Amino acid sequence: MRHELKHLIHMGDYLAIRSRLRHIMKQDAHVDQTGHYFIRSLYFDNYEDKALKEKLNGYCEREKYRLRYYNYDERYVNLEKKSKKNQLGKKDSVTLTKEQCQKLLDGDWDFMRSSSNPVLIEFYSKLYSQQLRPRTIVDYIREPYVYEAGNVRVTFDSQIRTGLYNKDFFSHAVPTMPALETGYFIMEVKYDNYLPEVIAAAIQTGQRQSSAFSKYAACRQYE
């Protein structure tokens, strides 16, 4: 598992931190010409909102499942299991074709039954045992930076939007609404065993505290 820190920061903090990071970190290889990429996720939960309630109630150990694709490239979709234990996080994933993903969303799950992938096997089981179902679309823009020592990744997420009750995962015309106030960013810091001092110093502002902000929870607040 990796250390994961999350901070809600305003525009001033973002500009200052980004300016420092650009001198010591590289941008992720998958960004577009603007230095960003688009992410669309579709989160799963059960009818009792297990994942949402575990987050809101501050459970130390929790997990959630989501489908995700990048930059509107729908040819391949990641099914991800995100596990958290205190400030440690782990992501396990399996790549699905668009056709497999559409079958999953249509309730045609037979293709998963013969899979040897542990993520897909567990997810298939929980579709039945926990009655997991698609809950909400989450869209946002990510600006990522990487640093080899410590396997550090710092990302700034902005323009976070929710699809509310619409779950048409592959539609570019899904109406969405903002889930985060304009001028604010979610800064996530992920690293393995240690955070290099040069990075720790670069992300300090003196005005920021670790936040329990959850994009999934924020995008469910209007229901």
UniProtKB/TrEMBL annotation:
Under InterPro entries, the record lists: VTC_domain (IPR018966), VTC_sf (IPR042267)
Q: Which residues form the VTC domain?
A: 2-220
Q: What GO biological process terms does the UniProt entry carry, in alphabetical order?
A: polyphosphate biosynthetic process
> A Pfam family in this protein?
VTC
Instruction: Name the domain of life this protein comes from.
Output: Bacteria
Indicate what this protein is called per its UniProt record: Polyphosphate polymerase domain-containing protein
Instruction: Locate the coiled-coil region(s) and give their ranges.
Output: none
